[in-house]
Each structure stands twice: as structure tokens, then as C-alpha cells.
């Protein structure tokens, strides 16, 4: 958290003339509720299932820059899907 994933991601996408996606914002857009609400109602497991689905879909797209939540890399499926492109780690 707080390493600048979304900020840097947006700047990188602009510089590369690519579309930018934030996986957390995409989940909120699709569900119509906040990440904190999903955690409260479905727990971390429910959120992680949604996150994995969104990352799978977004990582299959071409010519995008994607920012994920910090915990996304804990799931093997997400790590595998993110390897479809280049991964940049930002440390705060």
C-alpha cells in the first residue's frame, strides 16, 4: 500500500500510449461497491476470488498497463497471469 502503483501506472500508460487499468477500481466498477464493503461482506476470500478473475481478464488484454493491489501477488494464479506481461515492483 502507498507505493504509488496507480499513480506511476497512469503515468507509464500515458507515456506508452496505452490504456490504464487499476484492478481494485475495476472490481469496484463491476460490483458497484467499495473494496472495503466487499471485505466486510465477503471477507478476504471473497475479495481475492474477485481479484483473481479481474486480473485474469485484464492480463489477457494487449497493450495495457495494470496496477494491482499489493496482496495480489500472494496468489499463484495471479503471479502466473501477470507473467503474461512485464511486472514492475514498487517499494515504498
How many helix segments? 4
Tell me the total number of β-strands.
Answer: 2
- The radius of gyration computed from the alpha-carbon positions, rounded to a whole number of angstroms, is 13 Å
Mean pLDDT: 96
Poorly predicted regions are none
Based on Cα principal axes, name the global outline.
globular
> Sheet bearing the most strands, described?
2 strands, parallel
Order of neighbouring strands in the sheet with most strands: 1-2
Order of helices and strands: HEHHEH
The structural class is mainly alpha
Please bin the fraction of helical residues: 55-70%
Strand content: 5-15%
Q: Termini separation (Å)?
A: 8 Å
In brief:
The chain has 92 residues and is mainly α. It is built from four helices and two strands. The chain has helices at residues 5-16, 23-31, 35-59, 76-82, and strands at residues 19-22, 64-67.
Overview of this structure, please?
- Helix 2 (23-31) crosses helix 3 and helix 3 crosses helix 4 (76-82).
- The termini are close together.
- It is built from four helices and two strands.
- The protein is globular and about 40 Å long.
- The chain is mostly helical and 92 residues long.
- A two-stranded parallel sheet has the order 1-2.
Amino acid at each position: 500500500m502507498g507505493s504509488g502503483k496507480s499513480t506511476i501506472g497512469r503515468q507509464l500508460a500515458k507515456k506508452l500510449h496505452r490504456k490504464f487499468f487499476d484492478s481494485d477500481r475495476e472490481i469496484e466498477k463491476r460490483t458497484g461497491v467499495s473494496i472495503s464493503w466487499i471485505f466486510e461482506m465477503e471477507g478476504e476470500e471473497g475479495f481475492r476470488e474477485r481479484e483473481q478473475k479481474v486480473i485474469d481478464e485484464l492480463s489477457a488484454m494487449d497493450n495495457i498497463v495494470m496496477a494491482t493491489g499489493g496482496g495480489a501477488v500472494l496468489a499463484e494464479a495471479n503471479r502466473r497471469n501477470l507473467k503474461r506481461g512485464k511486472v514492475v515492483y514498487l517499494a515504498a
